[in-house]
Amino acid sequence: MAHQARVSAALGAISHPARSVDWPTSSSGSRLAYSSEIFGQNVFTLKALQQTLPKPVFTRFVQQIKGRQPLDRPTADAIAHAVRVWAMDRGATHFTHWFQPQTGTTAEKHDSFLTLKTSVNNGVEEVTAIDAFSGSQLLQSEPDASSFPNGGMRSTFEARGYTIWDTTSPMFIRPGPHKTAVLYIPSVFISYNGEALDEKTTLLRSSEALSTAAVKLLRVLGDTDTKHVYSTLGTEQEYFLVDRSLYNLRPDLKITGRTLLGVVPPKHQQLEDHYFGQVPSRVLACMSECELELYKLGVPIKTRHNEVAPNQFEMAPIFEEAAVAVDHNLVLMETLHQVAHRHKLKVLFHEKPFKGVNGSGKHCNWSMSTDSGDNLLEPTANPESNYRFLLFLVAVLDALYKHGGLLRASIASSSNEHRLGANEAPPGIVSAFLGDHLTEVLDSIEEGRPLKNFVPPHLQTVKVGGTVLDLKVATLPQIARDLTDRNRTSPFAFTGNKFEFRAVGSKQSPSFPIVLINTTVAASINALTEALAKKAAGKAAPSNEDVIAVIRDYVKATKNIRFEGNNYSQEWVEEAARRGLPNIKSCPVAFKKLLEPAHMNVLVSQGIMTEAEVKSRYHILVEKYVKDLIIEANTLKGMIFNGVVPAVFQYRKDLADSLLSQKSLGYDIAGLPEKATLDKLTKLAVELQAHGDELVELIDTINAADEETQAELSSTKLLAVMESVRHTADALEQITADKYWPFPKYNELLF
């Protein structure tokens, strides 16, 4: 039966036609609509708000946003009325405060616009149904705060919590059932006592801390125009797509997001022919429909392509302000999940769904920009004399050097643990890559000498800060070359005018890593500003010599965090140890970095988290890590004892029956191939049973232990036992006749 289901699912995967969706047409109907004409049509933008609100009310709202002040009730009532009319005209029947609990995903509770109004008509009380949406309903709602991860800050009987509208992120509508829609209100989520229970509250706090610190430094440098600095973010989202019928036959994929068993096929990614190859038509149809939905939601998707592993793909947006970019990344993941379902596909965001081929990341490209759009990490043509750039650059390096452990904690999870350190993702050592040019700039400042091998500005063409490559082919144009090459092995690489945090996992929200980057960089900027003030004591402003002196001090202090080589190499592991850089290999060790005084203080002192919130985050991470692994272990136990073992026993019985039949005919069975296979099967089956029993016993031991012991046992023993079970089961898969094997194999899932 299991084999027949596999065959049917595999045949279905081949025969599924690509789903066709009509692209919208222009207003005249004479052509297909341009992407820009579709973009943001389901978003309640400032422009839409301006068109519906009285001018004084709109002006007051903009001032409140810029001043980061609470909304007054009359303004909230006016906005609530305007957005209700806008949303209901587009089919909305419900609204929801959309928030980001510490589950790695989003949450929503739908409320209807419908309400009842009681009036008296001729002395008789009459109830009438009306549609209404008040300012108080817009501003906040009340989900259950005890049912979400809270790290012990809320008891189960203390249920009250609040979602509060984040006015910096626009409201939008998404399709509901029966051609209706739902109004989404981006929100923060706090407890009854005001503790942050979500990802967004801390992100907004960290953005404010970074802005305050950066503006203060800019003032010292003579910039009196910049009022606000914000971090920018672009998230490269990697994922796998598999046929949903095959997916439904894999309990491990359904429950855990990754395969707990499975042998890599003879051909997978070793020819590197899938990377940037032609996108399969069924997948391209899914991508295109997803882009259409995202354009309507104002998500600026820019690229799509095949990734390295078979059936692995990527979508990436244009850079945006970090908090909005996080919202949009989560919208992208949700939309891709829904659209893939329509195409009878299943999207896998797990960092390592298939052992033996590349896993998936969410490369977070981070920078800082002024309110006038000036990128503070833009080196320009002459970075050696661009002191503002150099100050912000060394502040980032300082943050990374002092708080690399925090950044390592921000990307630690049971799923990402399978990916980090493999030939696809950086190891547990946090370092920064700058490239030859910037390295030479910093070295020359440290050593007080002129630049070596510097290309004069009059020889630089086409691209700011780059040089030119001559391809020796007359019909090809000159190619502008960037200041630096890319280092795909670095966890934190400078890539022209931004840093790429490559270690972030594909499944996780990018919020927490960006919180910690913003926070630590803000602290380093503040310290750097103080150092400048000391150098310039008694002066109206620091001189160039003062600035260079501070930059030189920071270059020397952070030199150990810079590495230009291969982060995957054993040589780097040894060199990092000599430099005193920690190599954090396990999640429990990474999580404890949150509790170290220096790391906790950088969060608490700037108001990003209270001490209770930091400890809560630690307990949530540990609890999730243990639960994830226990769920995996129980899933593997079920697959082994309910699937693999019965299949192997049946095959072994059929082999034994065949041998007995041949023996009855007078054959010497000792040298028959069936006998050799039966012996191998029996040996492996006994081994699998022993590993399976060990797994069951260890699960019981972990369940009975305290939190810290659970984390330790899960990391040091459970993963090893699960790997032993898998190793034996995979050996059995390779010698068991295909018709007996109960689960779709890698060659069916990946091709």
Automatic annotation (TrEMBL):
It holds the Pfam family GSIII_N. It comes from the Eukaryota. Residues 93-194 form the GS beta-grasp domain. Residues 199-644 form the GS catalytic domain. SMART domains: Gln-synt_C (SM01230). InterPro entries: Gln-synt_C, Gln_synt_N, Gln_synth/guanido_kin_cat_dom, Gln_synth_cat_dom, Gln_synth_gly_rich_site, GS_Type-3, GSIII_N. Belongs to the glutamine synthetase family. This is Glutamine synthetase. The lineage of its organism: Eukaryota, Fungi, Fungi incertae sedis, Chytridiomycota, Chytridiomycota incertae sedis.
